[in-house]
Every structure is written in structure tokens, then in C-alpha cells.
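PROTEIN DESIGN WORKSHEET
SECTION A - STRUCTURE
LENGTH: 214
C-ALPHA CELLS:
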């Protein structure tokens, strides 16, 4: 898997499309991205109008949080083609997320859902979040479209990211990611989902979660 080139300068706060992003090495990020047909853009635009969300709405504004919740619920309901329900396609995505683990970023938690993906990483110096996302998306789109003999846009261009503020927030987001299949009614226990970090035991001998950045 290739396609990633180093980038000398992180962007800090910036915007691409309608979502704000924060990019800096060593800042743990919880990231979500979805299939192009998972949530119709027309529906997202309708929700934005209802909630009065625009390009200048801050990420922590209740209206933006409300929009994110609407999108999350719609994703979890299993709309669209849900091609990642196929173990072959989910395997391609999971392997892509882990391919450069401990080389260009540290992977902390992940979950490949039928129509979207959650992942938490710590980007390393020289590798920006946009470049990492581009590598994942371009490689997986090419491989899955080839496997399924399809063409056209596979992932939506935008993605959602939140930087992790503290250890409490860290544990909250790991639980959110790993329990997403349970919340969506796809399995009884988080560890039962085949394409998730929940299937591994992250604890060290002292009982501390080994994934917490030091």
C-alpha cells in the first residue's frame, strides 16, 4: 500500500467543505468517514437548514453536535449499499488502517461498519491527517471497486475528526468506537464484531489501557 508522502507543515485549524479540522503531529484524533451513498447529501443539507448550520458554525456548537448525531443515527440504521458488510471489503479497509501503524501514525482503536468507518490514531511527525485519509480512501476505493467490478465514487470526500482533549475523553471515544456495532444492533458484545479493535485485549499488567498515549 502506497500513496502517502510526508508533509513538513501541519495545518492546525482549517476547513475543507463544511467541517472544521485540526491537524498537528502527536494530537490523538478520532476520525469518521463514510461511503458515498451512506447518507444522501440532500438530506444533510436539509438538516443543516433545519438546524441553521453553516460554514462558520463552530464544531462545539450545539447545532453542529446535533447535525453530527443525526448523521450518526442515519449511518447506524444501515442505509445505502453497505458494501463493507462483505468480509472481503471490510478486510481491505481494516488492513489499510493498520498497514502503516507505528510507522506514520499509531492506531489506537477502530471499527469498520457496513457503511462507515471509525478510527482513532496519533499522527506522527511529517504525516498530516489529510494525507493519511487520502491514502486510506484512495487505496481502499481502488481495491474494493476492482473486487466488486464497480466504478465511481466510493467514499464521500469529507470526513469528521475530533482531537482528544484528555484521558477521560480518550476512554469515552474508544468506547464509542468499539461499541458502535452493539449500538447499531449488529452484535451483542463489542468483542464479537470481526472488524474492530475490541477483539483485542489492550490492558497491560498494571491494568492501564496500553493505548493511552504517554
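SECTION B - SEQUENCE
RESIDUE ASSIGNMENT:
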Amino acid at each position: 500500500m502506497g500513496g502517502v508522502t510526508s508533509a513538513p507543515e501541519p495545518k492546525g485549524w482549517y476547513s475543507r467543505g463544511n467541517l472544521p479540522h485540526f491537524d498537528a503531529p502527536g494530537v490523538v484524533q478520532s476520525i469518521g468517514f463514510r461511503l458515498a451513498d451512506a447518507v444522501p447529501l440532500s438530506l444533510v443539507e436539509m438538516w443543516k437548514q433545519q438546524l441553521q448550520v453553516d460554514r462558520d458554525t463552530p464544531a462545539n456548537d450545539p447545532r453542529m453536535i446535533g447535525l453530527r448525531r443525526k448523521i450518526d443515527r442515519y449511518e447506524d440504521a444501515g442505509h445505502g449499499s453497505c458494501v463493507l458488510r462483505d468480509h472481503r471489503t471490510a478486510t481491505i479497509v481494516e488492513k489499510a488502517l493498520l498497514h502503516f501503524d507505528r510507522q506514520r501514525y499509531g492506531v489506537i482503536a477502530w471499527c469498520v461498519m457496513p457503511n462507515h468507518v471509525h478510527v482513532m490514531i496519533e499522527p506522527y511527525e511529517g504525516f498530516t491527517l489529510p494525507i493519511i485519509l487520502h491514502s486510506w480512501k484512495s487505496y481502499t476505493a481502488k481495491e474494493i471497486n476492482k473486487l466488486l467490478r464497480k466504478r465511481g465514487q466510493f467514499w464521500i470526500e469529507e470526513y469528521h475528526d475530533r482531537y482528544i482533549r484528555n484521558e477521560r475523553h480518550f476512554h469515552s471515544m474508544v468506547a464509542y468506537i468499539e461499541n458502535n456495532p452493539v449500538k447499531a444492533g449488529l452484535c451483542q458484545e463489542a468483542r464479537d464484531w470481526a472488524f474492530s479493535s475490541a477483539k483485542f485485549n489492550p490492558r497491560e499488567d498494571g491494568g492501564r489501557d496500553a493505548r493511552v498515549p504517554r
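SECTION C - NOTES
The first strand starts at residue 12 and ends at 16.
The mean pLDDT is 86.
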